[in-house]
Amino acid sequence: MSDLSSKKTAPTLLIGVDFGLPHFDADLVELGLLAKTAGLQPVARLTCKRKAPDAALFVGSGKADEIKTLALLHGAVEILFDQALSPAQQRNLERHMGLPVNDRTLLILEIFGQRARSHEGKLQVELARQQYLSTRLVRRWSHLERQSGGIGMRGGPGETQIELDRRMIQDSIKRIKERLIKVKRQRSTQRRQRDRRDTFNISLVGYTNAGKSTLFNALVKARAYAADQLFATLDTTTRQLYLGEAGRSVSLSDTVGFIRDLPHGLVEAFQATLQEATEADLLLHVVDASNPDFPEQMAEVQKVLVDIGADQVPQLLVFNKIDALDSDRYPLELQDQYDLNGVPVSRVFLSAQSGVGLSGLRAVLSEIVKTALPSLDPSESDPRDIGREYLGDTT
Length: 395
Prior knowledge:
Blueprint: E1 11-18, H1 29-37, E2 41-49, H2 61-74, E3 78-81, H3 87-97, E4 101-102, H4 104-115, H5 119-134, H6 157-196, E5 201-206, H7 212-220, E6 237-243, E7 248-254, H8 264-269, H9 271-278, E8 282-288, H10 294-307, E9 315-320, E10 335-340, E11 343-349, H11 358-372, H12 383-391
Parallel strand pairs: 1-2, 1-3, 3-4, 5-7, 5-8, 8-9, 9-11
Antiparallel strand pairs: 6-7, 10-11
């Protein structure tokens, strides 16, 4: 397999295949941003339409020849697909084109590997990477191919190497999972301590690059890393947020951003981190209001919330980056209701960068907390029910 981390600034050809799905990115904008975030240099883009993937070459032999010609024309040394490839398709494409071929899944794994800073984050990325590699062992590299054995040998040395590599990866996966269980246990202990202090827990969620970390810094005066790039933050950061109108503090956590077609292995691997969202009393769903595709991005976030079991947690929508809106798209009011999956949900407009609307968000949070905290006694109602009642969620 080609190692993306060893090919920084490598000229890369971007390929997208339209199978008729509604979220297809015809301009490959997001894939280009992902490639640049990983340190690659997109030099050309090509999209095509198919009813279904070709079993052997994903795009078919004719289109594979066209991609090979385009790569040679632009001097590309790497080919990157916007969709996930099977191990066989990836192997066949590389043999057909004579160039390294990678997919969206590996690209996201590479970015996560570059961004992870904490011990927990690194463990989670490594687990997802090992699980991805475990499906791409058989005949993926020349040293794994079957070779004729010598006198007295059963099978070839290459066949033995496959078994050895598979066993090593499975052992590594087992060790990482055991270490992550310990991390998860430690996080549970920390949450129980917060619960004993009657803390209201809020988690920031949203599509990557929606401005979660910038909003987090603006609210709690923290210095969490924030940048105009995809997956700037991977590791969960938790701080105390004091709400003056409520007269007390709440716990605010900044979590990893979501993205379209987030590899399922990453969702599984990041369960320890994403558990902050599943056990929150309120989710601040941050949306990039300046992005014309924000409805699709919101839908992707909802999908991941369902996957991790956080879809029943009350949400407050925060439409960020209104300073980047044209005058004709600027909201008439900074607070209103938005129809989310058939349910009216409270929405706040703001700019975390300029500070416009932050006071309104604090006021809404204060009202929610003042309503919920008196019921934090174990004999009373679940604070999530109080949050739903305030936010207008009747489900």
